[in-house]
Amino acid sequence: MDKKIIYIGDSFCAHPGTIPGTHQYVVKQAFPDHDVIVHGYGGASWFYSRYRMLKESGHFFAPENRKNITAIIFFHTDGNRLNKQELVQFHEIPRSLIMQCFDEAFQKWAQTAWYNEIAKEYSDIPTIHFHNFYNSLDLADLLPGMQFTTPLMSISIGELIGTDEEVMAKLNKNETRNNHFGSYNNTILGEFIVNAIKNYQTGKFPINLSRFEIVNPNGHKFPNPGFGTK
Amino acid sequence: MLKKIIYVGDSFCACDGDNTHIDVVRQYFKGHDIITHGYAGSSWFYQRHHFLKDCKTLLTNYRKFIRAIIFFHTDNRRINKTHVISHMSDLDPAEMIKWFDVDFQQWAQEQWFNELTKDFSDIPTIHFHNMVYTLPMAKLLPGMQFVTPLTTISVGELTGTEEEIMQRLAMDDRDNHLSIENNQHIGELVINAINNYQPGKFSIDLSKFNLINPNCHNFPDSKFGTK
Q: Is position A89 within any domain?
């Protein structure tokens, strides 16, 4: 198929469009004449996702092919992950090395540079942006295209109940949901993306949370304490 | 307000005392403030952080008073931190590879060069490449730049085996890695570049410098020694 919809991000879009009950599947069903290409990797830094996208899908961005890209869907991750071309989780790095090498100001600068690169390189292609966490929202003005400024963590945590610790455990080691959402919210998010592609409009928009199944009213407090229900 | 000449870089512009190239410029431009942000062993991000932090008011409100910014571009194998100066080689090699990604380091320095073009094209900027590694990215930079690496001059002053030269570079007692005479020539080159500012890429005329090692062009590849 000539037409492409490309996903890039972390675990919020880490499943291929072949799995029912994922937002990628909903998009694939809505655009049967498209290849849905997913560059979403659990725990990945933006640099890793960028690297995989350019390595494996770089030819789609060649001048003669760009017109076939219907949209790029970005799921922007936390900027404080390890920027490497291999997938390394932060907890795998010795603490002493983190102390020696990690600099939050540099991580922020690098993510800012990535957003500037997106604006420079992809402004001719429809781009749809989600902020998975709160900490990329202050860079939102740098991004081109259509973006949703309600962090997806509000929805993901909104599905979970328990103490803060129990909610964190469900998000991390005990996570069983695809893309950190239940099937229902995956479907709603998929419909949301389909609508964004079909009615593409540049600008910043909140996500209407009333459409989602949310049982935890404190999800918006994350990562500050008090995001649990107990 | 006095006009400003600002230096940003690593050990190639870290010394501004008597007989350094910065002192030569200071003596010539007597009515100017010379502001130095040269830090030995530092990453470009460390230099950038201190330059932008200390010159914030100047860059925001008084840009027209900046006569020139002189960049001495370093290699990208240094740790990009704001408060610590260290090099990748300071780390245990087995540990280092867990953290560093050379392609990310390269990408980040390219973005720094893009940032220089985006944010400083309205100010005369003069660029030196301290080592060969930044030359492939030279096209990203604004302003006037010299594409002869300064290590060619620095190594050109030294004789001995490659190991002996590397040792002397590591324990360098020369200001800015250059002899007094060659510091003088770099200072004159900077003065001339400021007075006859012209964007573009230029070679450094090495015939003016006192070089005794004919193999200095080979640095950092092999055969840069004289024995």
A: yes
In a domain, A227, yes or no: no
pLDDT for A72 beyond 80: yes
Q: Tell me if A226 is assigned to some domain.
A: no
Domain that holds residue A124: 3-221
DSSP letter at A178 equals: B
Q: What pLDDT is attached to residue B223?
A: 93
Tell me, what's the pLDDT at B133? 96
Q: How many domains does chain A have?
A: 1
CATH number at residue B207: 3.40.50
In a domain, A33, yes or no: yes
Chains A, B: CB contacts within 8 A come to 58
How is A189-230 classified by DSSP, letter by letter?
HHHHHHHHHHT---EEE---GGGS----TTGGGTTSS--S--
Does residue B117 sit at the A interface (CB-CB below 8 Å)? no
A1 touches chain B (CB under 8 A): no
Contact B101 A94 (CB under 8 A): no
This model of the complex carries an ipTM of 0.92
- Tell me the CATH number at A122: 3.40.50
Structure tokens at B204: 């450094």
Q: How far is Cα A22 from Cα A64, in angstroms, rounded to an integer?
A: 31
Contacts of B114 in chain A (CB under 8 A): 113, 116
B223: in domain? no
Full domain range(s) for residue B82: 3-218
Residue A92 CB-density burial (10 A; 0-12 exposed, 13-18 middle, 19+ buried): exposed
Are A200 and A134 a contacting pair, CB within 8 Å?
no
pLDDT tens, position by position, B106-159: 999 999 999 999 999 999 999 999 999 999 999 999 999 999 999 999 999 999
Q: Does B100 touch chain A (CB under 8 A)?
A: yes
